[in-house]
Amino acid sequence: MQALLLFLTAAVCCISAIDAGCCTESFVYCGKTLEHERTGKCNVPLIANALYKCVEKGDPVLQKQCDDHCKNNVNISILSLVAYGAENIIPALQVAAKDSNDVYAPFLHFHQTIHGRRKGGDYCESFTAAISQYLGKFYYTERSAKSYLLILPTGCSSAINYAADMAREWNVPIISSAGSGSELRDKQRYPSLVCILPSKTEEYAAAFLELLRWYNWRQIVFVCDEDKTTDQAACHNFPAVLWRQMDYYSVYEFTEDLQQADRRVAALVRARTRGRVIVILAHMDVVRLTLVAAYRMGMTTDKFVFITSLWYNSSNPILGLPHWYRNDSLDQDAKLAYQALLIITMPGLTKNDPLLDFIDAVNQRSLQQNITFDTSASNAKSAEETKIYAVYAYVTFRSAAQMINESLANGQDLSDGIGFAHRMYNRSFTWLEQAPFKVNDNGDRDGVYAVLAFDAHSQNMEEILRYDALNGWDELYQSPSGHVWIRNATVWSGTFDSCSLLDDQQQCGTDDDFILAEVLPSILLTVTAGIFVVHQCRKRHNWEWKTSQWNLSAIHLQPPCSKRKRSTQ
């Protein structure tokens, strides 16, 4: 009740002050809850969601105070950094700048500079090498001294590291729409950084832990692919959440070259001796081949569970496609094998009119600017993935613009980048009518994560559970999609030999023969090394004993012979 009375009092005072007349460009902020368009004799278009107090002419002290706080026609310089996906991300940033200017003009004007190769593909490595030099040149020689600077990277963690280091020294806010490296969560090092893209390892690992609790699984086997393109952070963070609770969980982990068919079989044989809940962290194509081998070994019945993780519920060049279909000879077996698989990922985008309108606008701008994209190039990213990054870029720009408007409405200093970043902490945002997200108390995005499983009706991987980090629930709940996970106890009906287990059928023989062939060279090498070590030890021991002063041999115990003269007789 007191808050309502205070609000009404402020509104009456402000409106009466406006009605009394005021300078068209002289006013101070006194709140952010009342929306005006054009009010009173001033005929001033006030910023949306801000309550102003106009100061009458005639009082020099009040006039000076009003002029000092005048925020008319504030220029904001946005430096957007694009390391990949230019065909979608650059148009998305341009749409975001236009929409922000339409909302906040004429009091706020966003001038955007986009730095990056205007060509589809991933140029992260070369972009990182050049970013520090470009940032220094832009900050000291190219930017307008009369504007406030905000840096907006759209991807490439290594480049964001450089940018965030420099932003810290300049005390400039840096709001990142992508780049999910764990080092970016260190806000002691990067105090002016806010990450709008969620962490791909920490929160996913937390969702994984809740999944184990949901089904009460306690004995877990981790198999991580040796390939360097595998998400090594996930290979570390997923087991780490269980190592901290070793009194409850039994953990066994190892790495294997899952790119090789015979090694996949060896890994499965090794894993099934340690547990029935098997986590495979590898490219999804490799996960698929491993599951096919598991199906042919009878390991995809309801007595086994396989788990993997994927950043997004879409095709990704680093982690692959999250579904079983590839239009090849393994599709039928893969479809049956995937019934034993759970995938931890992020929910897909909610398709609605604002999102579809945004995608149309991005596509039109991309065509108009002739931003080329070769899907067969080695550095190509899938169109589906870059659309997600485009949405994040737009959402980040609009969220930053919203905070700039609110900071001005509260009379706060935009030149304090660290303070600006901290004002985004513990705030929720939503754009394009997507699921809301929250910037947590560490300046990182909290969101909603999904668990996918095979749905018999759709014959595809569908969302069955959700993990909500947004509201601090930190627990799983049934997905609103209504899909459920129904296990299939189908067992491989083929001959159980290595020709059927290996997808490329390069080796044949029984499972036992295969395992013996795998371990026999190691056994022989170990035995040979042992014999050599024993021999060397005995040889050294004998030498030391022979040369010891305590070694009294039989010859040393004989009395010396007396010399006798030869008889001349």
From TrEMBL:
It holds the Pfam family ANF_receptor. It comes from the Eukaryota. GO terms for biological process: signal transduction. One of its GO terms (molecular function) is peptide hormone binding. Residues 142-454 form the Receptor ligand binding region domain. It is found in: Membrane. GO terms for cellular component: membrane. Keywords: Membrane, Signal, Transmembrane, Transmembrane helix. Its main location: membrane. Residues 1-20 form the signal peptide. This is Receptor ligand binding region domain-containing protein. The lineage of its organism: Eukaryota, Metazoa, Ecdysozoa, Tardigrada, Eutardigrada.
